[in-house]
Amino acid sequence: MNTEMKNKEMANRKNLAILVFDDVEVLDFAGPFEVFSVTDELSHHTRLNVYTLGLSSAPVTAKNGLRVIPDFALGACPQPDYLVIPGGFGTRALLEDKTLLTWLAQTAPLCENILSVCSGAMVLAKAGLLNGLKATTHHEVFPELEALAPETQIIKDQRFVDNGKILTSAGVAAGIDMCLYMVARLFGEDTAIASARYIEYNYVSS
């Protein structure tokens, strides 16, 4: 591949944003970051521009003290083509964050896909994005999601649920399964297998 062609392909990469916030579950955001960034790396950085997004530009403290500096603040990031909402105890505060919920409602129609991991599904529910759909979440969060989303069919026996545009996964490591599935959807099964092999993850084709 010549330099001009490579630069053109890099410029055509899709934007993939991963929300981070205080008390986010580490693997909920780090798992998707690893999967999608490895997929981009293996394509010589021609497929996905993966970045983290915070409520502000200030560092966030994830579960168990991990400090993360977001790449962008809300409202100052590139328009995401794909958006990942992870879970963790910090999602409870997000349910009352009107700035985030307004941004999400405005941004969602412009996204090709929105994915939630674990209790991130509650944020989608609060924004009205799960109405009439099927969804899953961490097994300990089923009652809370049912209360927030009475018009949503809660699936309790699947690692992830695909509604087309919106996908939700069960807790923590299940987000990796969903993201590898998404890689297969976007770029083909061989790419998902290669990404899983690189991170030495036991990927099962859906």
What does this 3D model show about the protein?
The chain is of the alpha/beta class and 206 residues long. The chain has a single domain, classed as Class I glutamine amidotransferase (GATase) domain (Rossmann fold). It is built from 8 helices and 11 strands. The strands form 3 sheets. The chain has a 7-stranded mixed sheet, sandwiched between helices. Strand 3 and strand 4 form a beta hairpin. Helix 2 packs parallel to helix 7 (174-187) and helix 2 crosses helix 8. The protein is globular and about 40 Å long. The two termini are 32 Å apart. The model is unreliable at 1-7 (pLDDT under 50).
Key words describing this protein structure:
19% strand, 206 residues, two-stranded antiparallel sheet, 8 helices, disordered N terminus, Rossmann fold, alpha/beta, 11 strands, globular, single chain
